[in-house]
């Protein structure tokens, strides 16, 4: 019968305990390395590291928006929630003031003598007519934009641009949605590390070549990450084993994750500020401004009323057209500064958060898995290999200690 001193048992017991610590530390570090650093640290191309998510921000953002647009949200249905009358009530007061100010400026700058010659009563009727017609003009613009919304509003570009500009966004999206799962992956390293460390302890008792502990550390680092990832996403559908129902941990939390996902996506990515900014300043904004310009030019003509023939006679038809274009151009230049008035109403009307949450909750388990799993699918081998390498290095440290 073999006899051990207390000191010997202490040394052997340190093997599963240190394996537990190795499992925990390697899992936590591997998760951190998925998201940090945001930018490449080291010397490119190979001597250094960038978090997996920040390194693939563009592709992951494209994957995210593809899922959202194909399975969850329709751009046409979303824009249809905007009430033209409400938009008109929000913008009419400021546009009335701007139009009056700009008309005064343009005509006074270009043809001061002509403008002085226009009777005050005619000027008043002109501006009163603008104020009366402005709500209808805005409603017509909103309704026509709806017909061309897919050309004017590129939601894919909005989401990708928001994520590329701020790489923390995708990190926050995945970290908040998978908070419980990432915590489990870290903690599981502790439990599985200890369990895997028990046979390692027995092996070390019988065989003590220098390579046993580093090799065991590598296996522990590899196995703890692999098992944890499997438990997070598999099985996809609930499987009943006796009195127990087994399912991937992430998939069990569909309702909670849906709420987190919708909150981040609606508040920081697909919000009114980003949507309206993209519509007004994006590559498709020319179509929007051509629609607005057409209606504004008609409005200037209509508002001119009885004074239009007089003005055309004095300055000529071509110069009248140039003046009208200048008025419209200045109005369109000022519009982006005033559109912020629509942010609160647009967010309330679209209610992207509620829409997303409800649609996410209705997804099948297979579809729902695609929310978080994409960040692992292609590169989960990196996560596992990193865990294995860190485990091996810790195994060398074990060797020195034991």
Concise description?
With 402 residues, the chain is mainly α.
Q: What does this molecule look like?
A:
The chain has 402 residues and is mainly alpha-helical. It has one domain (6-401). The protein has helices at 6-35, 52-55, 57-72, 75-80, 84-110, 112-117, 120-147, 149-152, 155-165, 168-177, 179-206, 212-233, 249-252, 254-269, 272-281, 285-304, 307-315, 317-338, 343-350, 352-361, 365-369, 374-377, 380-401, and strands at 41-43, 47-49, 239-241, 244-246. The strands form 2 sheets. A two-stranded antiparallel sheet has the order 1-2. Strands 3-4 form a two-stranded antiparallel sheet. A hairpin with a 2-residue loop joins strand 3 (239-241) and strand 4 (244-246). The chain starts with 5 loop residues before the first helix and ends with a helix. The model is unreliable at 1-6 (pLDDT under 50).
- Broad structural category: mainly alpha
What is the number of beta strands?
4
Please state the average pLDDT score.
Answer: 78
Overall, the morphology is elongated
Helix proportion? over 70%
Strands of the largest sheet, in order across it?
1-2
Largest sheet: 2 strands, antiparallel
Give the termini separation.
Answer: 23 Å
The percent range for strand residues is under 5%
Task: Summarize the helices and strands and which ones pair or pack.
Blueprint: H1 6-35, E1 41-43, E2 47-49, H2 52-55, H3 57-72, H4 75-80, H5 84-110, H6 112-117, H7 120-147, H8 149-152, H9 155-165, H10 168-177, H11 179-206, H12 212-233, E3 239-241, E4 244-246, H13 249-252, H14 254-269, H15 272-281, H16 285-304, H17 307-315, H18 317-338, H19 343-350, H20 352-361, H21 365-369, H22 374-377, H23 380-401
Antiparallel strand pairs: 1-2, 3-4
Helix pairs in contact: 1-11, 1-12, 1-23, 3-9, 5-7, 5-18, 7-16, 10-14, 11-12, 12-23, 14-20, 16-18, 17-18
């Amino acid at each position: 019968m073999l006899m051990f001193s207390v000191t010997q048992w202490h040394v052997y017991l340190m093997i599963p305990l240190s394996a537990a610590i190795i499992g925990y530390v390697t899992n936590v570090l591997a998760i951190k390395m998925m998201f940090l650093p945001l930018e490449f640290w080291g010397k490119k191309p190979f001597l250094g590291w960038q978090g997996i998510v920040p390194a693939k921000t563009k592709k992951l953002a494209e994957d995210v928006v593809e899922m959202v647009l194909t399975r969850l949200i329709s751009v046409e249905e979303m824009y249809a929630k905007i009430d033209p009358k409400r938009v008109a009530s929000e913008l009419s007061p400021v546009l009335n003031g701007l139009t009056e100010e700009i008309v005064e400026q343009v005509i006074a700058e270009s043809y001061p003598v002509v403008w002085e010659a226009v009777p005050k009563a005619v000027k008043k009727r002109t501006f009163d007519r603008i104020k009366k017609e402005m709500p209808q003009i805005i409603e017509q613009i909103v309704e026509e934009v709806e017909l061309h919304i897919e050309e004017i509003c590129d939601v894919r570009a909005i989401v990708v641009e928001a994520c590329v500009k701020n790489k923390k966004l995708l990190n926050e999206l995945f970290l908040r949605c998978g908070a419980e799962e990432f915590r489990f992956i870290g903690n599981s390293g502790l439990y599985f590390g200890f369990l895997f460390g028990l046979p390692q302890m027995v092996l070390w008792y019988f065989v003590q070549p220098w390579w046993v502990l580093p090799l065991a550390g590598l296996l522990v680092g590899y196995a703890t990450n692999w098992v944890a990832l499997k438990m997070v996403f598999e099985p996809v559908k609930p499987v009943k084993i006796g009195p127990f129902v087994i399912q991937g941990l992430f998939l069990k939390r569909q309702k909670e994750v849906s709420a987190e996902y919708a909150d981040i996506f609606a508040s920081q990515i697909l919000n009114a500020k980003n949507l309206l900014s993209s519509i007004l300043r994006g590559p498709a904004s020319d179509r929007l401004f051509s629609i607005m310009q057409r209606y504004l030019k008609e409005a200037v003509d209509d508002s001119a009323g009885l004074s239009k023939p007089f003005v055309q006679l004095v300055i000529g038809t071509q110069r009248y057209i140039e003046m009208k274009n200048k008025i419209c151009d200045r109005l369109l230049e000022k519009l982006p500064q005033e559109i912020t008035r629509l942010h609160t109403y647009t967010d309330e009307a679209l209610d992207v958060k509620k829409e997303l949450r409800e649609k996410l909750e209705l997804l099948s388990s297979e579809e729902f898995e695609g929310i978080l799993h994409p960040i692992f699918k292609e590169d989960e081998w990196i996560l596992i290999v990193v865990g294995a390498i860190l485990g091996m290095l810790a195994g060398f440290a074990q060797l020195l200690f034991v």
